[in-house]
Amino acid sequence: MLTAARQVLAARGLDACTTDDIARAAGVGVGTVYRRFPTKESLVAAALDELAGEVLSDVCAAARAEDPWQALRDALEALAAGLHANRAFIEAVFEGIVEQQPLEAFRLELRAALRPVVARAHAAGVLRRDIVIEDIPLLVVAAAKLTPKRPGVDPQIWRRYLGVLLDGLRPDGASPLPLGPPPT
Questions:
Q1: What DSSP string describes 18-85?
Q2: CA distance 155 to 17
């Protein structure tokens, strides 16, 4: 059931996906779904919690690169790839559509995993000093969501925009940011 939920959520997002859709994809009746998950929100949280663990593991592995810029770049690419793979994940975790404890834990764990990477990049002088940990996930979400659903557009076009974003994180030629960072 969770595998079917992840597939339906990835393809259609939270708003376009119903519990009936997930039940149909899992080959069970909707009553079976509701016996295990009393609400659509609890089903979504369970399905996305599994994905959150995978994304966090990929980010942590990528962040181990010895070079500070490489570690930052690889960690952000791993995060963007995980987000891009499931539109509902972006909606649930970063847009706050689903407020479940496991997803809040993911947000906290993600910041904890990225904090030393950002600190290393700052210490090495390869990351703008005015970029803080709270900026990073929101910037990556912006790049990961940019995949137009039009014929002829490569579904990996988000990588282009992530490249532009990464260039903007470099201190060379940076101008002051107009506002302070978002709240935690």
A1: -HHHHHHHHTS-HHHHHHH-SSHHHHHHHHHHHHHHHHHHHHHHHTT-SSHHHHHHHHHHHHHHHHHT
A2: 21
Decide if domain 47-169 falls under CATH 3.40.50.1100.
no
List, for residues 129-163, the tens digit of each pLDDT value. 999 998 998 888 888 877 766 778 888 888 888 99
C-alpha 2/C-alpha 130 separation (Å) is 40
Q: Where are the domains of the chain?
A: 47-169
CA dihedral (168, 173, 177, 178) positive or negative = negative
DSSP output for 89-119: HHHHHHS-SS--HHHHHHHHHHHHHHHHHHH
What residues contact 167, with CB distance under 8 A and at least 6 apart?
Answer: none
State which amino acid sits at residue 107: R
pTM: 0.82
Distance, in Å, from the CA atom of 31 to the CA atom of 20, rounded to the nearest integer, reads 9
What is the C-alpha separation between 59 and 106, in angstroms, rounded?
Answer: 12
Tokens coding 25 = 């994809």
Tokens (6 digits) for 135: 């900026």
pLDDT in tens, 60-77: 999 999 999 999 999 999
